[in-house]
């Protein structure tokens, strides 16, 4: 039990992404997205835990030709497209105050560069938002959650091309106008820092087309920063009472020892992670990145007025995903552990998930305090959860006590951060209903309070079933975090 109640109106809920949830990839006039091209690779055949990149034009053409017989899990999702009413009713039963979802850009603009939107795509999200409104659930909508229209990759090499700024802003303005009476919480780019790890997923860049990968990635990121700031401006103009935020894959990093070399290595990792929010929350490039660009021969091309746009149109709040922490060492030969796209040295003080992600609830309190100290804007934890193998018992029950333990420990630390004085808007547990994993395209890596009967190969009835954690989370929300 927490000693302090969470603030009145705290936004409890769950989080998802269109490409992991909706399915119906070729229905309703939708165009192909970058994640529609990512195949399932069995665990034993993977070179690491992140198999989602498409690196070359040749590979993309091969995947495009492979329409029959290939296992592309993100194309099928869990069929939310046809079952959204059933799923939203379950979220309402848990008492969700908010539901984080993304709009699939190619559902609205199938190619990404058209002038006229696809009415069928717009109508689908109208129906989803109306269903949420019926239950008093506030939508929290991500504009770009790894759903770049594939056409923009093929024709422009994604965000490397500045023309994508205008395409994105046109898309953002279209949905702001359409849903201005239905959505008041928005995010621009999901985990914007992932471009540095996966140029294809984060920025739609095929690396075989560029001479210098880092140069191309940071130039693409600059275009995304400008697009984000212009989307913030448009949102404030079109929906004056809305709030729009940025979103970071937060990687809190500890020094391995008190050796100053380790402390400097940890600082460097932390700065590289917070660079993205520095630009979007503070409105300018931090000096440490200017040094990094200089030392790595990276030259950011800025158009006249870019710096003013970044400075004048900063976000209203900072949202982030938090799954684990990292450890840094000044010794380059140290073995690294993988997790949520990033890697670091194994922390001997922490346990790990079935996928090797290190579990660190206190790290959440630490990161909440650090972010609030640095930025002094409201924070929103929009992803946090445990990917695990779930077993359906003979009587049909799913006893996921390990998930309850994980979430309870993190919510307790969130309550401590609130007592520390941190302004937190809300908490949306990742994958509130089982969905396709972003990094591995597995269905067997489950996060949800709701079990979906489907395996890694798409077999199953898609029946929804409540896990033990369903009633637990319902009680957490009902008591506003008092009963954990």
Tell me about this structure.
With 484 residues, the chain is an alpha/beta fold. It has a single domain, classed as Glycosidases (TIM Barrel). The chain is built from 16 helices and 16 strands. The chain has helices at 18-21, 57-65, 73-76, 80-94, 105-108, 119-134, 150-156, 163-179, 199-203, 213-238, 260-282, 287-295, 306-312, 361-375, 401-419, 468-478; strands at 11-15, 98-102, 138-144, 185-189, 243-249, 253-255, 317-321, 326-328, 337-339, 342-344, 351-352, 358-359, 379-383, 424-430, 450-452, 464-466. Strands 1-2-3-4-5-7-13-14 form an eight-stranded parallel β-barrel, surrounded by five helices. A two-stranded parallel sheet has the order 6-8. A two-stranded antiparallel ribbon has the order 9-10. A hairpin with a 5-residue loop joins strand 11 and strand 12 (358-359). Helix 14 (361-375) packs parallel to helix 15 (401-419). It starts with 10 loop residues before the first strand and ends in a 6-residue tail after the last helix. The model has no long low-confidence stretch (mean pLDDT 94). Belongs to the glycosyl hydrolase 1 family. This is 6-phospho-beta-glucosidase. It comes from Salipaludibacillus agaradhaerens. InterPro entries: GH, GH_1_N_CS, Glyco_hydro_1, Glyco_hydro_1_AS.
């Amino acid at each position: 039990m927490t000693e302090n109640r969470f603030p009145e109106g705290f936004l409890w809920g769950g989080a998802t992404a269109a490409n992991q949830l909706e399915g119906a990839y070729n229905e309703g006039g939708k165009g192909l997205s970058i994640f529609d091209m990512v195949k399932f690779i069995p665990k034993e055949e993977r070179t690491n835990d992140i198999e989602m990149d498409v690196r070359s034009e040749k590979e993309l053409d091969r995947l495009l030709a492979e329409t029959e017989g290939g296992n592309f899990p993100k194309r099928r999702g869990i069929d939310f497209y046809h079952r959204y009413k059933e799923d939203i009713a379950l979220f309402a039963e848990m008492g969700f105050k908010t539901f984080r979802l993304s709009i699939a850009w190619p559902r609205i603009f199938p190619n990404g560069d058209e002038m006229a939107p696809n009415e069928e795509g717009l109508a689908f999200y109208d129906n989803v938002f109306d269903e949420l409104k019926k239950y008093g659930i506030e939508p929290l909508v991500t504009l770009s959650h790894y759903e770049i229209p594939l056409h923009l990759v093929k024709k422009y090499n994604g965000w490397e091309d500045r023309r994508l700024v205008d395409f994105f802003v046109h898309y953002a303005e279209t949905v702001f106008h359409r849903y201005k009476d239905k959505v008041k919480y928005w995010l621009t780019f999901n985990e914007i820092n992932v471009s540095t790890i996966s140029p294809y997923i984060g920025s739609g860049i095929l690396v075989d087309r560029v001479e210098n990968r880092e140069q191309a990635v940071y130039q693409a990121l600059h275009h995304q920063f400008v697009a984000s700031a212009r989307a913030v401006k448009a949102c404030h103009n079109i929906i004056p009472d809305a709030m729009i935020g940025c979103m970071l894959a937060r990687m809190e990093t500890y020094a391995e020892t008190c050796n100053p070399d380790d402390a400097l290595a940890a600082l460097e990792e932390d700065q590289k992670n917070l660079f993205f929010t520095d630009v979007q929350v503070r409105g300018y490039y931090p000096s440490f990145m200017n040094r990094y660009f200089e030392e790595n021969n990276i030259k950011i091309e800025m158009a006249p007025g870019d710096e003013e746009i970044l400075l004048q149109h900063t976000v209203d709040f900072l949202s982030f995903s938090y799954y684990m922490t990292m450890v840094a060492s000044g010794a380059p030969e140290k073995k690294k552990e993988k997790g949520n796209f990033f890697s670091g040295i194994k922390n001997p003080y922490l346990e790990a998930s079935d996928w090797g992600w290190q579990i660190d609830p206190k790290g959440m309190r630490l990161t909440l305090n650090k972010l609030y100290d640095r930025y002094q804007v409201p924070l929103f934890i929009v992803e946090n959860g445990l990917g695990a193998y779930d077993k359906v018992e003979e009587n049909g029950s799913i006893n996921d006590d390990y998930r309850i333990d994980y979430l309870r420990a993190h919510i307790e630390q969130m309550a401590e951060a609130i007592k520390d004085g941190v302004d937190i808007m809300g908490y949306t547990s990742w994958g509130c209903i089982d969905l396709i994993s972003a990094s591995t395209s597995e269905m067997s890596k489950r996060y949800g309070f709701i079990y979906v009967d489907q395996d890694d190969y798409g077999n199953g009835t898609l029946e929804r079933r409540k896990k033990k954690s369903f009633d637990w989370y319902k009680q957490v929300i009902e008591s506003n975090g008092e009963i954990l």
